Amino acid sequence: MGLPVPCYIGLVHGPIRSKDGQEITTSVTNLDIHDIARTARTFGFKRYFLVTPIQNQQQMVKKILGFWETDSGLIYNPDRKNALAEAEVIDSIELACQEIEKIEGQRPTVVVTGANFTSYDGKEKELLNKLTLDGKPMFLLFGTGWGLTASTVEQADFRLEPIFGIANDGYNHLSVRSAVAIYCDRLARSL
Fold first, then answer.
1. How far is 135 from 82, CA to CA, in rounded Å?
2. Which pLDDT tens digit goes with each residue over 123-156?
3. DSSP class per residue in 63-132
């Protein structure tokens, strides 16, 4: 049993919020490329988009992805190619939405996440109910830096409840790789 609709992950590097609330672009990290691709593959997501408008960052991601398709990469770790095969670098959230629409024949439901949300539309179960009723593909967005910009959140179709830890001291700042894995597991277990 898989997710009820075709699902996609987006890791947004720009535009993103800085610590002081400004719009910035963050750097793509090698760990995020590999680890989130493996999580996406494990939980049946169709594609993993790394969203960055910076051309040098795009070239770096393409070089990393390309390495795992070469003989050296295949010999070293043949399973890595399988996980990274669906990873793709793209300029913007909008272009990723257009790509999903080309693949699926309809625009995706854009779902946003954020540790700092003060209001949200529901938990994983409510999201899955919405997706099942709508029948549209899902594009699940994660922010880097200090989170997705207000305009990205406002334009989304669904704001997913934050992951709350059990510490009572107000600390709530997981790595994005951890958040992706937790949300994917929760979505799979909510079916």
1. 27
2. 999 999 999 999 999 999 999 999 999 999 999 9
3. HHHHHTTSHHHHHH-HHHHHHHTTEEEES-HHHHHHHHHHHHSSPPEEEE--TT-SS-SB-HHHHHHHHH
Entry pTM? 0.92
CATH dotted code for 7-189: 3.40.1280.10
Cis check: omega of the bond before 53, within 30 degrees of 0: no
SS3 percent helix, strand, coil of the chain, rounded to 5, is: 45, 20, 40
Tokens of 108: 């995706």
Distance CA 61, CA 182 (A): 24
Q: Which of 114, 157, 126, 88 is nearest to 4 (CA)?
A: 126
Identity of the amino acid at 41: R
Query: For residue range 52-106, what is the model confidence (pLDDT) as tens digits?
Result: 999 999 898 888 877 656 555 455 556 656 678 888 999 999 999 999 999 999 9
What's the mean per-residue pLDDT of the chain? 89
Helix (H) / strand (E) element for 48: namely: strand 47-51
Exposure letters 93-120 (e unless 16+ CB within 10 A, then b): beebbebbeeeeeeebbbbbbbbebeeb
- Domain ranges for the chain: 7-189
